[in-house]
Amino acid sequence: MVVIAIVGILTAVGLPELTKAQDRAKDSAAAQTLTNAAKECAIDLLSGAAAYDFTATNYADITSSGTKECEAGATLTLASKSGNGSEKEANIVFDGVVPGVVSLDTQ
């Protein structure tokens, strides 16, 4: 009985912290995925390559504020898959063809 009580107490203390750590990791993964997509987009913009197509890559969940998926001055957005109850979105705003820093906004 004592062992079961100790395991119960440890679970009650440790489980919320584990969930928080998992949510932080998912937020970080969304920010990093968006950063990688923005870098690829910037390379295409600088090199004059054809319009970038996120749906044909691993970045299908990324949305853009531009008329094209990848264009100068656009804002790229990717929602985090964290389950902490508050939706978070990672955003990158392009200054011309140069991507800015990722911001993680709570919705």
List keywords for this structure.
alpha+beta; elongated; five-stranded antiparallel beta sheet; 107 residues; 5 strands
- Unreliable segments of 5+ consecutive residues: none
Number of domains: 1
Secondary structure tally, helices: 1
Report the order of strands and helices: HEEEEE
Helix content: 40-55%
Distance between the termini: 44 Å
Q: Which whole number gives the mean pLDDT?
A: 83
Radius of gyration: 19 Å
Biggest sheet character: 5 strands, antiparallel
Indicate the overall shape.
elongated
Q: How many beta-strand elements?
A: 5
Oligomeric state: single chain
* Structural category: alpha+beta
Strand content: 15-25%
Tell me about this structure.
The longest helix is centred in the first third of the chain and has 46 residues, at 2-47. By secondary structure, the chain is of the alpha+beta class. It has one helix spanning 2-47; strands at residues 63-64, 75-79, 88-95, 98-99, 103-106. It has one domain. The protein contains 1 helix and 5 strands, in the order αβββββ. Strands 1, 2, 3, 4 and 5 form a 5-stranded antiparallel β-sheet that branches.
